[in-house]
Design goal:
The chain is an all-alpha fold. 72% of the residues lie in helices and 0% in strands. The chain contains 19 helices and no strands. Helix 7 runs antiparallel to helix 16. The longest helix has 43 residues. The protein is globular.
C-alpha cells in the first residue's frame, strides 16, 4: 500500500492540512476557468461589437497557443522564482488582462491579451499541478493523477461555456470576465494570507531562454490557426490574407526547426519525435479532437431547427460531465488492474464516439427533441476522457525523463490547438458547402405543382394577406417562408449526411484499434508523474 505523501502546498507552518488543500483548490479554480475569449457568448459578442464569430474563435485558440509556447520556459523560471511570487505576479497580470478583454472593443487587442493569458496560465497551471498531485496520487502514478485531474479541467471548460451563456443572457457578455476576476482576487487573498514567505534571489537566465524560437513557433501556430479559422469566411485561397498566412506558416515552421537543429541548447528538443509511441499518441489525440469537433454540427441543429436559445444550446454540453467521470473511472481501474490489453481500452473509447454519432444520426429530425442529445453528449465525454488519459500515459512510457517537459508542448499543440481548430474549420466549411448543394437540389423540385409546397405557399400567402399586406408583399413573405423551410430541410439533410460519414470513420477506427499492437505484453509499465502534466 502506498504511503501518502505530504502536500507540496507552500503554506505557513500554522496552516492545517485541510486549509492547505482548500487554498490549493481555491487558487486552481480561476486558473482552470480563465480564458482570453469565451465561446459561450459568441453570438452576444458578435452582435455587440459587430465582429465575426471567427474573431472570437481566433482569440480562444490564441490562449492555447500562448500556453503551449510558454511551457518549455516554465522550468527555467521556476528554478529562480518562488511559488508564491510566480502565483502572485501571474494572477495579478491575469486580472489586468481579463479587465482589458472585458472593456476593449478591438478584437486585435483581445487576441494579443488572450495569447498573454495563455502564456501566464502555463506557469500557474504547473504550480497548481505540483501542489495537488500528492493529494490525488500519493503513489505518484500518472494514470491515477490523470483520472482525477482531467475530469476537473475538462469539466471546467464545459461549465465555463454554460456560465458565459447564462451571464450573457441575464446581464452582459463582459460579466464572465468580471466573474473570473473576482475568483482571481479571492485566490490572491488566499495566497497572501496562507502561503509562506520565501526569499530567493531572482536572476532570470536570459541566456538560456531562446525567445526567438518561441516567437517563431508561436507565429507559425497563429498563422496556421488564422488560415484554418477564416478559411470559409474569406473564401479560402481566393483571399490574399489566407494565401499569405498559408505560405508564411510553413516558412516560419522551417525556420524554427532549422534553429532547433543547430542550437546547442534548443528551445524544443525534437528527439521526442523519434519515439513511435509519442507520434502515435499525438496523432490519435488530433483524431479524437477531430471527432469532438462534430459539436459544430450539433449547435446549428439546436439553434436553427429546434430553435433553442444560447443558454440551452450551451447547457447541453454539461451532459458531458457524467461521461468524463465514467471515462476517468474506467481508465483508473483498467490501468491499475491491467487484466485486459491496452488496445481494447482504445477501442472502447472510439466505440463511445461511434455510439454517440449513431444516436445523433438516427435522432436528428425536424421533430427531434432537445433531450435526445443528453446520452450522445455523455458518451462523447466518456470517449474523450478514456482516450485522453490512455494516450496521455502511452506517449511517455518509453520517453527519456529529460524530454518529458517538451511533451507538454506537443500535447497541448495537438490536443488543444491543431485538433479542435482544424476539426471545427473542416466541419463548418463542409456543412456550409453541403447545405448549399442540398438546398439547390431541393429547390429544383419546389414548384407549385408540388401539393405540399403549394399548400404551404397558399397558407403563408393567406396569412400574410390577413395581416394587411398587399399582394406583392404577401407573395414575398410566402416565398420567404418556403425559403426558410428549404434552409431547415437542407441543414437536416447535411447534418445527417456528414454525421453518417464520420460515424463510418469512427466505426472503422474502433475496429482497427482492436488489432493495433500498442504493447507487446498484457502488462505495461507504471509511468510516474513529471513536469509535463498539463
Amino acid at each position: 500500500m502506498a504511503v501518502q505523501q505530504p502536500l507540496s502546498v507552500p503554506v505557513r507552518p500554522w496552516v492545517p492540512r485541510w486549509l492547505a488543500v482548500t487554498a490549493a483548490f481555491v487558487v486552481m479554480l480561476p486558473i482552470i476557468f480563465i480564458n482570453g475569449a469565451y465561446t459561450g457568448c459568441i453570438t452576444e459578442v458578435s452582435n455587440t461589437l459587430g465582429v465575426l464569430s471567427e474573431d472570437i474563435s481566433m482569440a480562444y485558440y490564441a490562449t492555447t497557443v500562448g500556453m503551449a509556447a510558454a511551457y518549455p520556459l516554465v522550468p527555467k523560471i521556476r528554478s529562480v522564482v518562488t511559488t508564491k511570487t510566480i502565483l502572485l505576479v501571474d494572477l495579478l497580470m491575469q486580472v489586468f488582462l481579463s479587465f482589458v478583454c472585458a472593456r476593449t472593443g478591438q478584437m486585435e487587442v483581445v487576441v494579443i491579451c488572450s495569447f498573454l493569458i495563455g502564456f501566464l496560465k502555463a506557469f500557474a497551471m504547473l504550480e497548481i499541478i505540483l501542489m495537488i498531485r500528492p493529494f490525488f496520487s500519493p503513489a505518484n502514478v500518472r494514470s491515477e493523477f490523470y483520472a482525477y485531474f482531467y475530469p476537473i479541467v475538462f469539466s471546467a471548460g464545459q461549465i465555463s461555456m454554460y456560465l458565459t451563456a447564462e451571464l450573457a443572457y441575464r446581464y452582459q457578455w463582459q460579466y464572465m470576465y468580471y466573474f473570473v476576476i473576482l475568483l482571481l482576487l479571492i485566490a490572491i487573498l488566499f495566497i497572501l494570507a496562507l502561503f509562506r514567505y520565501g526569499q530567493k534571489k531572482i536572476v532570470i537566465p536570459f541566456r538560456e531562454i531562446d525567445g526567438r524560437s518561441m516567437l517563431l513557433i508561436a507565429a507559425a501556430l497563429l498563422m496556421t490557426l488564422y488560415a484554418a479559422t477564416y478559411f470559409k469566411t474569406l473564401d479560402g485561397f481566393a483571399s490574399p490574407q489566407i494565401a499569405v498566412a498559408a505560405f508564411t506558416a510553413p516558412v516560419l515552421l522551417w525556420l524554427f526547426l532549422r534553429r532547433q537543429t543547430f542550437r546547442k541548447n534548443p528551445y524544443l528538443h525534437l528527439e521526442l519525435l523519434n519515439s513511435a509511441k509519442a507520434l502515435i499518441g499525438y496523432t490519435f489525440m488530433i483524431f479524437v479532437m477531430f471527432l469532438s469537433a462534430t459539436s459544430s454540427l450539433v449547435t446549428p441543429y439546436l439553434t436553427s431547427v429546434l430553435r433553442v436559445d444560447s443558454v440551452h444550446a450551451n447547457s447541453i454540453y454539461l451532459w458531458m460531465l457524467p461521461g468524463f467521470a465514467c471515462g476517468a473511472f474506467v481508465c483508473f481501474w483498467w490501468l491499475r488492474w491491467q487484466r485486459w490489453r491496452f488496445r481494447y481500452l482504445i477501442a472502447w473509447g472510439l466505440s463511445c464516439f461511434a455510439l454517440s454519432l449513431a444516436i445523433i444520426y438516427f435522432g436528428v429530425s425536424a421533430s427531434g427533441r432537445y433531450e435526445m442529445l443528453f446520452l450522445p453528449m455523455a458518451l462523447r465525454g466518456m470517449g474523450m476522457m478514456i482516450l485522453f488519459i490512455a494516450f496521455g500515459v502511452y506517449v511517455v512510457e518509453e520517453l527519456d525523463p529529460k524530454l518529458m517537459i517538451y511533451n507538454a508542448f506537443f500535447l497541448i499543440t495537438c490536443r488543444s490547438v491543431l485538433g479542435p481548430a482544424f476539426g471545427s474549420a473542416f466541419f463548418n466549411n463542409l456543412l456550409y458547402r453541403t447545405q448549399l448543394g442540398n438546398m439547390n437540389r431541393l429547390a429544383e423540385h419546389l414548384t407549385l405543382q408540388d401539393p405540399l409546397a403549394a399548400q404551404q405557399y397558399a397558407s403563408a400567402l393567406q396569412q400574410a394577406a390577413a395581416h394587411g399586406n398587399g399582394a406583392a408583399e404577401a407573395g414575398q413573405l410566402a416565398v420567404n417562408g418556403l425559403y426558410s423551410t428549404l434552409q431547415v430541410q437542407s441543414l437536416l439533410v447535411s447534418v445527417k449526411e456528414i454525421v453518417g460519414y464520420v460515424l463510418f470513420v469512427a466505426i472503422v477506427m474502433a475496429v482497427v484499434a482492436c488489432f493495433i499492437p500498442f504493447h507487446k505484453t498484457l502488462k505495461v509499465a507504471i509511468v510516474k508523474t513529471g513536469e509535463d502534466m498539463v
